[in-house]
Amino acid sequence: MKLSLIQMNSPGERDANLARALDHVDAAAADGADLIVLPEFFNTIYFAQYRDYAYIDMAEPDDGPTITAIRKRARGHGCHIVATIFEAESAGLYYDTAILIDPEGEIVGKYRKVQPAAVQSLEKLFFRYGAHFPVFRVGAWRVGINICYDTFFPESARCAALNGADLIVVPFAAPKQVIWRDVMRTRAFDNGVWFAPCNKVGTEGDWTFPGGSMIVDPYGEVVVEAGAEGGADETISAEIDLDAVSAARRRYPMFRDRRPELYGPICANTEDIPPVPS
Questions:
Q1: pTM of the model
Q2: Residue 198 annotated as catalytic
Q3: Quick check: is 267 in a domain?
Q4: Is 277 within the bounds of a domain?
Q5: How many domains in the chain?
Q6: Domain residues for 169?
Q7: Residue 229 in this model has a pLDDT that exceeds 80
């Protein structure tokens, strides 16, 4: 399968950002992409840097103008696309949602961010959290999705892998992280999956995004990597091999050697975890 990640900047109005994203989709499809991934909130400025509820007006349903346009492109090119939007489910109920669209232009699944960020950003003011780690069929592949901050919780990628993922794509809107590259490689290696973070780039409002999108193989080796500075849009692509997943998991059989019966504290309620003895 040929996988393409579109690393882009989205500083202006929605329609301009969407038009540029569609141009990038056209170019990736013309280059033979089977699955195209756009970054988190590719159609809007990263608004969660501000405590301003007026940004709620930017939320759209899955039949709004953004996803309608993406569905038309997927159908026209006969490819899969993952597009992440500020989704309006109903009045007062919003999600950070990655939507998978198939070559017929149909929505075949959604992943809603399980861990909205509240470290540097204010996402928890805007979004409800998701509750599932679904895996979707893309041809012969089983594809899981995490979104941005989810990646800093190793349980997120592990749940997707345990649910059957061979490939995990990760739409991002992340400012510079010292350990970015190491985390992405580790998530791929830990789970024996292809791992593909697709970040924003350039300045939006008061934040600057460093790019650094990459496609990592199941051994944790970076196959292709986008620029980390400069702010220019960039598309990276790679032919990825499903057989590499089986080979990596035979070489490093972490799933065989897991001891889930001992991992109770990971799933315990926070209040139920006993304090560390003094």
A1: 0.96
A2: no
A3: no
A4: no
A5: 1
A6: 2-253
A7: no
Sequence-distant contacts of 19-22: CB under 8 A, at least 24 apart: 20/233, 21/70, 22/69, 22/70, 22/73
Of 79, 87, 113, 204, which is the active-site residue? 113
pLDDT at 171: 98
Structure confidence by residue, pLDDT tens digits, 3-23: 999 999 999 899 999 999 999
Give the active site residue among 87, 123, 148, 204.
148
What percent of the chain has a predicted confidence (pLDDT) above 90? Answer: 89
Verify whether residue 40 is a known catalytic residue: yes
Q: Is 104 an annotated catalytic residue?
A: no
Name the band, by pLDDT with cuts 50, 70 and 90, for residue 270: confident
